[in-house]
Design brief:
The structure holds two protein chains of two kinds.
Chain A (H helix, E strand, L loop, with lengths): L2 E4 L4 E4 L4 E3 L1 E4 L6 E6 L5 E7 L5 E4 L2 E4 L9 E3 L8 E7 L4 E2 L3 E6 L1
Chain B lengths: L3 E4 L2 E4 L5 E7 L5 E8 L3 E8 L6 E2 L7 E4 L5 E5 L8 E8 L7 E2 L3 E5 L1
Parallel strand pairs in B: 2-11
Antiparallel strand pairs in B: 1-3, 3-8, 4-5, 4-9, 5-6, 7-8, 9-10, 9-11
The chains are: A mainly beta, B mainly beta.
């Protein structure tokens, strides 16, 4: 099956700092790639996705680009807020495998 | 619109007991999934069902069985619970493979 390797956390940043969370994948075929977010005490919800190579997914100031040549889908945000504190999961489509998750804490 | 509904929300079992986690979706989705979430391990796929009548093993299927009862329902059974199965379990569905997942609210299971 497919697999995902995600940057280990936890990550602690100050408000307005730049965020990068690395994600690489192995897959057969050309699966869609996803980032999900889990806020404290809640289930997972989709943050953004990309369905083919060179696609950029974006939502709420977060972006990730589907890089087939490096098999990567790194999550970035230019200026994080306290409300972005959550656990972020990278996932690869078809059999929907997830990475281990990266806990982000943003301090005021 | 209920989305994905999981029951129960909490359960405590003794080692060796059996139980079934129920999951139903009302979005007419073909694909359904069961995951477990453990600290530091992220979400690991237990079983999935790409369509009614089919099921496939995921990363950690041992100790579990599933039934895709119909298009709406996908249950997860623990025949003889073990402490290692203490976890939070999530059911999810999608319109088809390779599409966005919709998650249930989770079941917190403790096996003593």
């Amino acid at each position: 099956g497919n697999s995902v390797t995600q940057m280990e956390g936890p990550v602690t940043l100050s408000e307005e700092a730049f965020l990068t969370i690395n994600c690489t994948y192995t897959a057969t075929g050309y699966p869609s790639l996803f980032w999900y977010v889990q806020y404290p005490g809640e289930g997972l919800q989709l943050l953004l996705k990309a369905t083919k190579a060179d696609d950029k997914g974006s939502n709420k100031g977060f972006e990730a680009t589907y890089r087939k040549e490096t098999t990567s889908f790194h999550l970035e945000k230019g200026s994080v807020q306290v409300s972005d504190s959550a656990v972020y999961f990278c996932a690869v489509g078809y059999d929907m495998r997830f990475g281990a998750g990266t806990r982000l804490t943003v301090k005021p | 619109n209920a989305g994905v509904t999981q029951t129960p929300k909490f359960q405590v079992l003794k080692t060796g007991q059996s139980m079934t986690l129920q999951c139903a979706q009302d979005m007419n989705h073909n694909s359904m999934y069961w995951y477990r979430q453990d600290p530091g391990m992220g979400l690991r796929l237990i079983y999935y069902s790409a369509s009614e009548g089919t099921t496939d093993k995921g990363e950690v299927p041992n100790g579990y069985n599933v039934s895709r009862l119909n298009k709406r329902e996908f249950s997860l059974r623990l025949e003889s619970a073990a402490p290692s199965q203490t976890s939070v379990y999530f059911c999810a569905s999608s319109g088809r493979d390779n599409e966005k997942l919709f998650f249930g609210s989770g079941t917190q299971l403790s096996v003593l």
